[in-house]
Amino acid sequence: MKFAIAIFSAAHAPSSRRALLFAQAALAGGHEIVRLFFYQDGVFNASSSVVTPQDEQDLPKQWCSFVSEHQLDGVVCIAAALRRGVLNEEEAKRYQREAIAVGAPWELSGLGQLHDAVQDADRLICFGGA
Amino acid sequence: MAKSLLIISRQSPWSGPGAREALDIVLAGGAFDLPIGLLFLDDGVFQLAAQQNAKALQQKDLSANLQALPMFGVEELFVCSDSVAERGLAPEALSLEEAQALAADEITALIDRYDQVITL
Amino acid sequence: MSTLHVLSHSPFGDDRLSSCLRVIGANDALLLSGDAAYALQPGTAPFSALNDRSLALYVLAEDAQARAIEIPDWAKAIEYPAFVELSIHHDKVNSWL
User: Fold this and answer.
1) Contact assignment for B28 to A119 by CB distance below 8 Å
2) B1 by DSSP, 3-state: which?
3) Which subunits sit against B, judged by 3+ Cβ pairs under 8 A?
4) Chain A residue closest to B36 (CA)?
5) Is ipTM beyond 0.85?
6) What are phi and psi of B102, to 5 degrees?
7) Which among C2, C25, C94 is the nearest to B117, CB-wise?
8) In this complex, do A128 and C95 lie within 8 Å of one another by their Cβ atoms?
9) Does residue A105 have a cis peptide bond before it, meaning omega lies within 30 degrees of 0?
10) Is B108 close to C97, i.e. CB distance below 8 A?
11) Is the pTM higher than 0.90?
12) pLDDT tens column, B49-100
């Protein structure tokens, strides 16, 4: 079964943790994840600027290793990311900003990538809010 | 055949970028010629209230984008009649004439009809 | 066709649960996650509303445990692998974000 997973909440929201656990369970169950798409506050999950207190779960780091380890397609919505100051090197240069918060394995791209994933997948599952 | 996607928009236009970002998903789908539906539910129906004034909050007006939906190929537009009634809006005064009013059981059938759904 | 509805907001002071119950279909299922698990707090309006409906009702086990929510016999506690299976069993997943 092919899943598209979309994340709409920041890394500190419980729903982002559920998204990661769902994604891990999906792969463990022998299923495929065609794409992880981060929209709205979900873009913060891809930010390397998040500093998590030592005794708390570091979700951005866990997402990063999960995506790298399984060579998944992790796409961050570019418009949502710009609005929230989560820029990669190219966008930081384009808008003359100093802070670069997104690098590999993440890709900044448009909403078309969400639709594309919906077309490819058997199921779309969204996580967000509380 | 392309999979159809229903967006259920539940946020008021003034509660942050949520309503606009829900609409952006719809417009992007329309731009790719995908079968997209949009249902206004709960506070989302406030997006259709007449004579709103975005300038009062120094914001951009969402209603112009909503009016443009049919031009972007998004013609499947729906509004929950219970949500409209509960919020004291007059159904005939909603700003999007194309939106079809649906009762609860018709919304159940609508969700059934689409391949996938996003509720924002 | 059937839908798995997923809630994650507390039912107290939020209308997602009531809206969901209004449109949920006979073949659909409902999964309570996060603070939505508080809907199973006995003696409350959300508890009665759920009890009155013969829904296929699930709750994420970790969320019930964390909140010290006892699970009534008309709901089923599930872990993530079962969540994945539920999302496959139904034709689509409607998360009330």
Assistant:
1) no
2) coil
3) A, C
4) A115
5) yes
6) -125, 140
7) C94
8) yes
9) yes
10) no
11) yes
12) 988 888 898 888 888 889 989 998 999 999 999 999 999 999 998 998 899 9
Question: Tokens standing for A44?
Answer: 């913060």
Distance CA B33, CA B29 (A): 6
Contact C95 A28 (CB under 8 A): no
Distance of alpha carbon A106 from alpha carbon A76, whole angstroms? 7
Give the type of residue at A29: G
Q: Which of B21, B32, B116 sits opposite A124 (nearest CB)?
A: B116
pLDDT tens column, A43-90: 999 999 999 999 999 999 999 999 999 999 999 999 999 999 999 999
Distance (Å, rounded) from C-alpha A112 to C-alpha B24?
Answer: 10
Contacts 24+ apart (CB under 8 A), A57-61: A57/A17, A59/A11, A59/A12, A59/A16, A59/A17, A59/A20, A60/A11
Q: Which of A32, A123, A124 to mutate to probe the C interface, most C CBs <10 Å?
A: A123
Token match 């055949």: residue? B1
Q: How far is CA B10 from the centre of its chain?
A: 8
- Side-chain half-sphere of C21: how many Cα atoms within 13 Å? 19
Q: Which two tokens stand for residue A119?
A: 């077309």
- Cα C91 vs. chain centroid, distance in angstroms? 17
Q: Between the CA atoms of B85, B90, B91 and B92, what dihedral angle is there, to the nearest 10 degrees?
A: 170
Q: For the residues of chain A, what is the DSSP string, one character each? A: -EEEEEE-S-TTSHHHHHHHHHHHHHHHTT-EEEEEEE-GGGGGGG-TT----TTS--HHHHHHHHHHHTT--EEEEHHHHHHTT--BHHHHHHTT-S---B-TTEEEE-THHHHHHHHH-SEEEEE---
Report d(CA A19, CA A13) in Å as an integer.
10
Query: Neighbours of C (≥3 Cβ pairs closer than 8 A)?
Result: A, B
What span, in angstroms and rounded, lies between the C-alpha atoms of C95 and C87?
11
What is the C-alpha to C-alpha distance for residues A52 and B65, in angstroms, rounded to an integer? 39
